[in-house]
Write a structure and sequence with these properties.
six-stranded antiparallel beta barrel; 2 helices; 6 strands; elongated
């Protein structure tokens, strides 16, 4: 009789623990769903707030006028723009690049503190080419630069080696559709 009471008590305890673990997993899933919805709403708000710049298509220059006396005696074939004896027009020069803004000039003037040498976007971290040799400490924040633009922000994690460190990608600053890549440079945070 005593052994059956012990087995019954053990069974009830195991059922209670299993029920608690199932409830905890459901709560964690609800929290993850809420967080995902929040991120989607934030991205949708950014997409709505960011004006879409219209793209302009430059038209090709008209073909040069050829005098009737210089026209070939043989009529050109249909669809053929390059017949022997017809002049080849050079393409128009590319439009000049837009002048840099003050923020872009500030970005280009900042020295690179490190470079991204390994990236794991799906796990949310990267490895950089600086560590204890550059006096990095946990929690330091850096902006990530590519060319004359910012592509994100990273925070130094707790794994800091002599010349490498692991940084967490700050998803609150990430731009929609832009991902940090190997070769991007880390700079001190920009004050806007």
């Amino acid at each position: 009789m005593r052994l059956s009471h012990f087995a019954l008590a053990l069974t009830i305890i195991l059922l209670a623990i299993t029920g608690y673990l199932a409830w905890e997993a459901q709560e964690e899933a609800r929290g993850a769903r809420r967080e995902l919805e929040l991120v989607r709403k934030q991205q949708a708000a950014r997409d709505v707030a960011t004006p879409i710049k219209p793209t302009t298509v430059t038209s090709l220059p008209p073909p040069p006028e050829v005098p009737a006396s210089a026209a070939p005696a043989v009529p050109p074939l249909a669809g053929s723009g390059l017949m022997p004896g017809t002049p080849v027009t050079s393409p128009s020069p590319a439009p000049a690049a837009a002048p840099l803004t003050a923020l872009q000039k500030q970005l280009l003037g900042m020295p690179a503190m490190a470079k991204v040498i390994e990236i794991h976007n799906d796990q949310g971290f990267a490895v950089i080419s600086a560590g204890k040799d550059k006096q990095l400490s946990q929690g330091m924040k850096f902006d990530v630069r590519r060319g004359d633009g910012l592509v994100g922000r990273v925070i130094v994690g707790d794994t800091i080696e002599a010349s490498e460190a692991v940084v967490d990608i700050d998803s609150t600053v990430a731009l929609p559709g832009v991902r940090i890549e190997v070769g991007d440079e880390l700079i001190l945070p920009i004050r806007k």
